[in-house]
């Protein structure tokens, strides 16, 4: 019995790890040519009850704590005029409820926990039929259970549901400042050790300290059309022009916010934010299931990676408990996953609603300091 996992992201690798621990054959098919073929993005905060629980079940929690940054939990929340609304600095002895970790480091931790032959690089999935996987290079492979862990644009998802990601009204641009402590010590001190968040009416700026000394800057525009980038006047192929246009779009914001944008290097990455319907389900189908963003794509507000890791681990545990009855294992996994991720999806939608409101900063302050 062979389990084929399409997608070598966090959820797919967590599943492969659990199956390896339980001597169940699994192969991860990843379209990228190697682990270093593409940048993996910024920091993730792993929650004690979900992402950290998954790593504990996978026997990797100690290795996780060795690479995690508890100080990354620090938070500064500001108004566009520079007024500081909230500053939370993590004490040295504070419990690591949501420590930050570099996504690439976490992925490497999972990859290093697997035998090299488990991940087949350079295998871009095209479609599946009659127990056979077809890849874009014309090769094929057999499977008994297919797990779609292939993200927002999953090619496995259509085997189970017609649901497709829909635009949220948010468009974002990712920028960054490398080696910030040396190149811009004043901005490094302003951002601090964790997250620096400025919320305005229809726009936001967030800056996130990474473990490699880079500050990633995300500029978001809410209540915008799916094709907003085409009309925004932001030339993504002209970094200097893009920075100038973005500064123009943030006219009236504090000099500190403008300085962050001006200090960024030539990396300009436009991102159109999409989600799947909250509470998406499908009839359990023999031979195929989904996890992570393929199953429950949410706004990027802290739940996605945690849910994906836990999906992979809990599916692995279900398969280990029913090694001779994959359909029963999948039903058990999907039942729990639907309930858990629906709740997470509702919370993510609530935060997204706050971000799109005219008084986003005050509502977010109330969210962090209820009562």
TrEMBL record:
Keywords: Cytoplasm, FAD, Flavoprotein, Monooxygenase, NADP, Nucleotide-binding, Oxidoreductase. Residues 3-224, 288-323 form the FAD-binding domain. NADPH binds at residue 38. FAD binds at residues 45, 103, 293. Coiled coil: none annotated. It comes from the Bacteria. InterPro entries: FAD-bd, FAD/NAD-bd_sf, TetX_monooxygenase. It catalyses: a tetracycline + NADPH + O2 + H(+) = an 11a-hydroxytetracycline + NADP(+) + H2O. SUPFAM superfamilies: FAD/NAD(P)-binding domain. One of its GO terms (molecular function) is FAD binding. Its main location: cytoplasm. It is found in: Cytoplasm. Its cofactor is FAD. Pfam families: FAD_binding_3 (PF01494). Signal peptide: none annotated. Its EC number is 1.14.13.-. One of its GO terms (biological process) is response to antibiotic. One of its GO terms (cellular component) is cytoplasm. Consists of an N-terminal FAD-binding domain with a Rossman fold and a C-terminal substrate-binding domain. Belongs to the aromatic-ring hydroxylase family. TetX subfamily. Monomer. HAMAP family: TetX_monooxygenase (MF_00845). An FAD-requiring monooxygenase active on some tetracycline antibiotic derivatives, which leads to their inactivation. Hydroxylates carbon 11a of tetracycline and some analogs. This is Flavin-dependent monooxygenase. It comes from Actinomadura darangshiensis.
